[in-house]
Please model this.
Amino acid sequence: PSVPRHTNRLINEKSPYLLQHAHNPVDWFPWSQEAFDKAKKENKLIFLSVGYSTCHWCHVMEEESFKNKEIGEIMNKNFVCIKVDREERPDVDKVYMTFVQATSGGGGWPMSVWLTPDLKPFVGGTYFPPEDGVHRVGFRTVLLRIAEQWKDNKDALLENSQKILEALLYRSEIRVRGQESPPPSKEVMATCFQQLSNSYDEDYGGFSESPKFPTPVNLNFLFTYWALHRTTPQGARALQMALHTLKMMAHGGIHDHIGQGFHRYSTDQHWHVPHFEKMLYDQGQLAAMYSRAFQISGDEFFADVAQDILLYVSRDLSDQVGGFYSAEDADSYPTTASGEKREGAFCVWEAEEIRALLPDPVEGATEGTTLGDVFMHHYGVKETGNVSPMKDPRQELKGKNVLIVQSSLELTAARFGLELGRLGALLWEGRRRLSAARAQRPRPHMDTKMLAAWNGLMISGFAQAGAALAKQEYVSRAVQAAAFLRRHLFDPTSGRLLRSCYRGKDNRVEQSAVPIQGFLEDYAFVIQALFDLYEASLEQGWLEWALQLQHMQDKLFWDPKGFAYFSSEAGDPSLLLRLKDDQDGAEPTANSVTVTNLLRAACYSGHTEWVEKAGQILAAFSERLQKIPITLPEMARATAVFHHTLKQVVICGDPQGEDTKEMLRCVHSVFSPNKMLILADGDSSAFLYRQLPFLASLERKDGKATAYLCSNFACSLPVTSPQELHGML
Model:
């Protein structure tokens, strides 16, 4: 590569996204006191640009505007320019995204916001094209107009920004109003089910026309709804909606049939043409959902998809020391000789490429059939490409194919006169050859930042899959990742989590000069992961750490006046608002996950005040839960867990005994949203016996592994056979 012409301060950062912009002709600052001081001293507006390293439109805006020398000069002359990686600083992102959504009705990345020198926003948007077009004003024009406004109407702008801030404070406040009890669980569940049912796509699954996101929180809600209404028509529909959605996604182009794992979302109704980036948080949640689907249905199809996701993460998103990387980009060079990157280049195929790779005649099939014919038919490949021009505005996928399973194995087998087993082997061979060919292409950029929150979601994915699929190697991978978190994303002296660490030189794990402290979501997702990991591994050390972190979360983020937790801690003068997230989206919101965490924490510790706190969170979100629970499906689900109280399934037995293992397998094979598992191994000096004195009174019946079902620390009669236990569960 040639020596870069420009280098700015971002060269000293660790975030892959900030480093991507280190050679722009823009004088970028990271989010820092140095930038704020400069804006105040020179009385300049701030231009804030927020994105992430695998964001397609962020790359487009960089290519068009931030690499343009003239536009760079306008930016440097009139503004102090700040770049933020939203994955590193979700707190900064949320404050200004709240503003952009409130003022423009939409949001997304790249986010472009103009702030006064004291950080108050007054105008914002997302992607801007560089020059004026028929429908959109160009970035250059916007920059010049805003600079002019600041020169001519400074006082009006400042006054306006103050009013905007007051309105945002009022709009974004979530607190208990008068009544302090949680909303009625039955109504919340029924409304949420009805709202999901109304927006459900009967043909293709999912909950919108397009774009379509995987949204695991919806599926998790439906599984819980089914478990509590198994015998009703609504319960049956909830299960059918969840399983059909998971099946259609797995068949679709959003699922990478050659390289495994799932892309971020589909641009169409059919799950066909995706935005090709792959995010760690999707893999973690989807691995858990497909494992749960297998646990409920017994259908191996779902187990296979869960294993496919975990293969991708183990192979491509894993750091050698045990952590998980954040994401893989959508854009890459089509060939080693290409000058510019294209979206999806790593994943798409021309028909002739596939024919050339799969020329073998297929014995026993209709005359003249090649492996290519069978493969192309099954995966919907067309000679002219299978991507509609409507879904390809920049013409990057012209003539290309995104693989999508168009017909069942039975139909493909019948079409070519093949046996099912034989067809499976042929398709496997086709995928193997395409995978080898794809390995020769230039790989997309990998964001090797490691985030505590997303590592938490992935640990839960491995732990839940390990338990439900009875695969010890997944549990071991989860243990390795939890040990990584403890070593690299936790400060034992302060007892606090850190947000992020990075893969540095020689693949060593590095920390930034001033480490970013953990946010609420880091605590919530890591605590959830540690509970899941205890249930899968039965190592009590993870429980002990989870409870310590829960105490720390309470201390840093709890709102004693209005209830529930703030997303960020107090005391950062550069943050205008302390917000509480109110939407379960691609990831669940931290308060939603915390409700269930608190109920589990209370069951493992005997601290009943945690149950009270869980109720207070639900009370704070009560209005939203009763009117539009579809925006909070994970919290709606938690209202049911709160209402039905968690049942402690206690297995008394020797962890190495075959009878104990059989009872544990039975517990792991049943999906029940309000069960949690305790292994009482008889070691009265262990952590759990110290926390829960009632365990000492439970004994093995006739020397055999014995199960008790306990609620509020009172227990059922003992059972010693897995069949009886299955019935109880």
